[in-house]
């Protein structure tokens, strides 16, 4: 494997770094207290990746087994314990544990034991913000018909496993 083609053709570099301080308010807060921080949106990385900090408040939550057709997803546990499905079984992951799921890989995650936090990395950088925000609206009481839910999930590349 070799390096990909250059994404920057300049010869002097440029001032383009972004900083998000740890005390920045979350971008989405769910009714159950879960919080999502948009660290790097796909649009800000030229579509290369998206990076989000997910903070579980405590009540059990998280998606069951599913897969994505267009993107890879990775998890890095920061605090607490997160149960992550690897396509075969649910694994208890702790701070410092890392899970990578290629496109098509079965996965899911839950916080079974109280508050926890993790980084979610998506590559390429799909617009996951609309997915997180849509789920928050539904959790707050917005309703969707079965057809609307199916369309929403398909649009956001989520395919559920029975």
TrEMBL record:
InterPro entries reported for this sequence: Cupin_2 (IPR013096), QDO-like (IPR053146), RmlC-like_jellyroll (IPR014710), RmlC_Cupin_sf (IPR011051)
One Pfam family linked to the record: Cupin_2
Source species, domain of life: Bacteria
Domain Cupin type-2, residue spans: 62-119
Protein name per its UniProtKB record: Cupin domain protein
């Amino acid at each position: 494997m070799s390096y990909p083609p250059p994404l920057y053709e300049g010869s002097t570099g440029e001032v383009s770094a972004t900083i998000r301080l740890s005390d920045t308010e979350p971008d989405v807060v769910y009714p159950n207290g879960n919080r999502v921080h948009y660290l790097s949106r796909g649009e800000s990385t030229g579509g290369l990746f998206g990076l989000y900090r997910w903070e579980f408040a405590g009540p059990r939550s998280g998606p069951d087994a599913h897969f994505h057709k267009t993107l890879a997803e990775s998890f890095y546990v920061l605090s607490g314990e997160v149960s992550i499905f690897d396509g075969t079984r649910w694994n208890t992951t702790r701070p410092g544990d890392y899970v990578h799921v290629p496109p098509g890989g079965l996965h899911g995650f839950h916080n079974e034991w109280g508050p926890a936090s993790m980084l979610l990395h998506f590559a390429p950088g799909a617009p996951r913000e609309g997915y997180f925000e849509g789920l928050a609206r539904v959790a707050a009481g917005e309703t969707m018909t079965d057809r609307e839910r199916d369309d929403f999930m398909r649009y956001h590349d989520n395919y559920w496993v029975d």
